[in-house]
Amino acid sequence: MKPSEQRHLAEIQAELSRVVRYDDESIVNGKWVRQRYDCGCFPAFTPARKATVRAAWHEAGHAVAALEVGARFSSASIHHGCGTEGRVHGIRGASELAFVIDAAGQIAERLMSWTMLERDDELRAWLLTWKSDGGDARHFRRALGPRFGNDELRAWRYSEETLAPLRLEIRQVARALLVHPQHLPYHLVAAIAAAARDEHLRTAPRRPWPSPPAPWV
Questions:
Q1: Exposure pattern of 70-79 as b/e (b: 16+ CB <10 Å)?
Q2: Cβ of 162: how many Cβ atoms within 10 Å?
Q3: Does residue 211 lie within any of the structural domains?
Q4: pTM value?
């Protein structure tokens, strides 16, 4: 990691520690809100702020999924542009699990709001409506490969099973995107996600060892 990246990481971690008790909408950097408001995309700051949070979770989902399947990328950003709310740039090396990265944006949004589609009929109906999403839907279907064929539902469930345990990492990367007024290079995202994972492992309650079985009488 470059010295400049180490400095930015320390600044981001310090800011995340400072705002740990605040919700996501309260910590959005003003730059991201003004981008969405000034372009006329939203009628007020409040909906612009909500859209920024949703974009941060979406892009954090892609980024953490890429880390999980061993892919690389250049950076993650929630910069608002023409037709896009953000992007994870230059993803490469995802191999046969690229579809997990493509699904991760939508899955992360649902993890944010705890609105996972648990019934298969509901998920099938939703998948029929998933058509664009910045190209994610198209890329997801193209990347299924021989392992899943045309079984979109099974591939989606696999993606959910992969990403649901990573919710805290996705959340922390999303919050880093929200507080930092620039893109996050790969090494920063990886470090932030790793720190969130380590913190979770450190603070998660440990299960007691089971009692030994009673002896035969």
A1: ebebebbbbb
A2: 17
A3: no
A4: 0.91
In a domain, 208, yes or no: no
Cα–Cα distance measured from residue 173 to residue 95, given in angstroms and rounded to the nearest whole number: 23
In 3D space, the residue among 206, 117, 107, 115 whose CA is nearest the CA of residue 166 turns out to be 107
Residue 217 falls within a domain, yes or no? no
Contact between 57 and 88 under an 8 Å Cβ cutoff? The reply is no
Q: Is residue 204 part of a domain?
A: no
Report d(CA 102, CA 8) in Å as an integer: 28
Rounded CA gap, 20 and 199, in Å?
A: 13
Residue 168's domain is classified under what CATH number? 1.20.58
pLDDT digits (tens, 9 = 90+) for 57-67: 999 999 999 99
On whether the CB atoms of residues 150 and 37 are closer than 8 A, the answer is: no
**Which structural domain range is residue 122 located in?**
3-199
Residue given tokens 């993650």 in the structure block: 76
Q: Considering only CA atoms, which of 80, 94, 85 is closest in space to residue 57?
A: 85
In tens, the pLDDT along 125-150 reads 999 999 988 899 999 999 998 889 88
- Domain total of the chain: 1
